[in-house]
Structure formats: structure tokens, C-alpha cells
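Key result, reporting period 2: structure in, sequence out.
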């Protein structure tokens, strides 16, 4: 095909084993041109290829293309996440000693980075970026993060400069494939779904994930929205905000998403509406994976994990509920103190964090069992 290209990133031994490299030990190495096979290569559309993350310190390019047709750029350091340059979250998370992969280890992996798309619908984009990147970085896998934004909605709480610099409109990603996707909650749950101004574009994205993403995780309001769009599962307003840290149990302890989980685990919730188990049970294709006596359904899965709906906020930082509580108090809004959150029930004592280990397991298990082990090597084969 005219616009099809192939590349491979490997050490010299691997290239020789594949019959791609010839030359004596100290002689100049050269590519063989006889009997080319695409085995071991990454297939790409050269019209869309702008860069190749190599993940190695010492690199030699062997190509039949002229040297002025490409540029080799060095990076001073590399996280296991491939992120937009100068994203504020990078420096913030480095201060927390977030895992950094060294060049030698990255070079040994010989794998393409997983491509994860994040549709961030939360009002304070930077905070959610920090929360998600903190969890996604807790893995030896190399992951490329792409932030998606809506074309039919303008963020009021994040600068236009930040959005234009680090986010890409859905219209420009429509023809792309991703190994995984995360769609966050949004502060619109007290509206009917069809009243949300960007509902049409959002449902277009939901439909697009079915053929362009290997596994999608829907969080909080996005979980309610996805269940409603695909299955007409309704949401119900709550008399009082579900606000605090709640105990949950697993329906199937052997399910890979729960590897390493304790029998009971805690999850933050912050929402004004809910979905109900009796409505979900009407759909045999949906499976309730975890729930709580107090906060109801927590996780629903379908198509063997191609879609995972999570009604809580496992990704929340330790101080997020504290900020929400004090924000609403300052505005004079009716708000109860988050339950099971503060030490001794006293806001002055700070939060007792009981969900971080589970949050790390949740995202690591999702990346491992539902993204990395399930996605095809050729990302274009996702369907």
C-alpha cells in the first residue's frame, strides 16, 4: 500500500535473529534487502506518523531513507508515560517520586507504547490530569497519553491556552485507534442526559469507542451516561449527596480486575444521583462486579471488559473531598461532612486515606488484563 510503512525498535542481536542486519563484529552494520518480511515490525500509516518514541539512550538509525528526512532528538529523562511536553502534571508528580524508567530498562522491553486516550470532562482539568497520571504511571509499561477535548464545549475553569496546548479535539482523533480510554465524570449529573449541551458529541464518542478502543473505563457521571446511552439504564436523583468513603464487596473475587484486592475495599464517592441494580439486572449483557450497601452499585462490566463502568472516584487524591467540602461550605451550600473520611470525624484532623492501594490496583489491573494483554500488536486491528 502506498502510505503503509514499517519500523522496528530492537537491539542488534534481535535484528540479526530476524535476518535484518548483516556485517562483521567491528564492521559497519547494514540492513539486508533480500526477502523482506514484516514479522516483528510495527505497521504505520506514514501520513499520520510524526514521531517514534524509542525509549533508549543510545540509538542508531538504520534506514534507506536520506538522513535529512528524519531527526533524532534526545530527551533528558523519561517517565514510563509519554506525555505532552511541558504538561504541568509532569513536574508536580516528579516531586512525589513517581516512578521513572531508566533507558536500559526501556530498551529491553522492545514493545510499542500503549496508547491511552483521556476524555477529561472535569472542570479543573489539571487536578484530574494529576490524579490519573499518578495512577497510570504505577506500571513498568510505557504508555502514551493523549488528552481529548470536545469541540462543542468550552471549558470555563481551565485556560484556553492549556486546552489548545495539551488537548486534541475529537474530530482530529476520530480516525485513530487506542488501546485504552478513560472518560471522566462531569458536574452535570443533576441535568437530564439530553439536556447536557455536548450530549450529541459525547454519544458519538461513546459509539466510536466500540470500534476504536480496546477497553474503555467510564468514571462516575460518565458511567451513568454510558449505561444510559448503550442500555437505557436510568439514573435517579438522591435526596442527599453521596459523599464520603464507602465499603465495597466483590461479586467475583477471581475476576482479574480485582487481583490483589482485599475482601472489602473502600472507594470515594461524590455524586447527586445513582443507578440501581434492579435496572442493570434487566440486561444480561451487563455484569455487576462490585457494590456497597451504602453507596450502591460501584462497578459494571460488559463485553469481557471492553467497557467498564465505575460509579465512584477511586482516582481521587487524599485531599479532594476536603476541598469539595470546604468549597461548598464557603459558598453557603447545603453539604454534609463526608462520611468515613476525616480522622475521628474531625475536619481539623485531616483525612484517613483508605483507598489509595485499591486505586493503584484498579488501574494497574485494568492496564494489564484488559488493555495490554487484550489489545492486538497491530493497533489498527482493534475493532
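The corresponding designed sequence is given below.
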Amino acid at each position: 500500500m502506498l502510505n503503509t510503512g514499517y519500523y522496528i525498535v530492537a537491539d542488534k542481536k534481535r535484528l540479526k535473529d530476524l535476518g535484518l542486519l548483516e556485517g562483521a563484529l567491528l564492521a559497519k552494520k547494514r540492513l539486508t534487502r533480500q526477502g523482506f518480511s514484516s514479522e516483528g515490525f510495527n505497521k504505520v500509516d506514514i501520513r499520520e506518523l510524526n514521531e517514534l518514541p524509542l525509549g533508549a539512550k543510545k540509538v542508531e538509525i538504520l534506514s534507506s531513507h536520506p538522513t535529512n528526512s528524519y531527526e533524532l532528538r534526545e530527551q533528558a529523562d523519561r517517565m514510563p508515560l509519554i506525555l505532552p511536553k511541558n504538561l504541568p502534571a509532569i513536574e508536580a508528580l516528579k516531586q512525589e517520586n513517581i516512578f521513572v524508567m531508566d533507558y536500559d530498562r526501556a530498551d529491553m522491553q522492545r514493545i510499542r507504547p500503549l496508547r491511552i486516550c483521556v476524555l477529561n470532562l472535569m472542570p479543573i482539568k489539571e487536578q484530574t490530569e494529576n490524579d490519573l497520571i499518578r495512577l497510570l504511571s504505577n506500571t513498568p509499561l510505557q504508555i502514551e497519553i493523549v488528552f481529548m477535548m470536545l469541540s462543542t464545549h468550552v471549558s470555563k475553569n481551565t485556560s484556553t491556552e492549556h486546552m489548545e496546548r495539551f488537548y486534541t479535539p475529537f474530530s482530529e482523533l476520530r480516525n485513530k485507534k487506542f488501546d485504552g480510554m478513560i472518560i471522566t465524570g462531569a458536574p452535570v449529573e443533576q441535568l437530564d442526559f439530553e439536556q447536557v449541551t455536548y450530549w450529541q458529541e459525547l454519544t458519538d464518542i461513546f459509539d466510536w469507542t466500540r470500534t476504536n478502543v480496546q477497553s474503555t473505563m467510564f468514571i462516575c457521571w460518565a458511567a451513568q451516561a454510558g449505561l444510559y446511552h448503550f442500555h437505557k439504564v436510568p439514573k435517579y436523583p438522591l435526596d442527599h449527596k453521596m459523599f464520603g468513603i464507602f465499603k465495597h464487596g466483590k461479586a467475583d473475587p477471581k475476576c482479574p480486575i480485582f487481583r490483589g484486592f482485599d475482601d472489602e475495599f473502600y472507594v470515594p464517592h461524590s455524586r447527586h444521583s445513582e443507578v440501581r441494580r434492579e435496572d442493570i439486572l434487566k440486561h444480561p449483557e451487563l455484569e455487576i462486579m462490585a457494590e456497597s450497601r451504602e453507596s450502591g452499585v460501584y462497578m459494571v462490566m460488559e463485553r469481557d471488559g471492553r467497557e467498564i463502568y465505575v460509579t465512584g472516584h477511586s482516582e481521587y487524591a487524599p485531599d479532594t473531598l476536603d476541598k469539595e467540602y470546604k468549597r461548598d461550605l464557603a459558598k453557603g451550600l447545603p453539604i454534609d461532612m463526608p462520611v468515613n473520611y476525616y480522622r475521628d470525624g474531625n475536619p481539623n484532623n485531616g483525612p484517613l486515606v483508605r483507598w489509595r492501594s485499591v486505586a493503584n490496583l484498579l488501574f494497574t489491573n485494568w492496564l494489564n488484563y484488559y488493555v495490554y494483554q487484550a489489545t492486538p500488536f497491530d493497533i489498527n486491528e482493534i475493532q
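Residues 239 and 272 are 8 Å apart (CA to CA). The radius of gyration is 23 Å. This case is discussed further under Risks and Mitigation.
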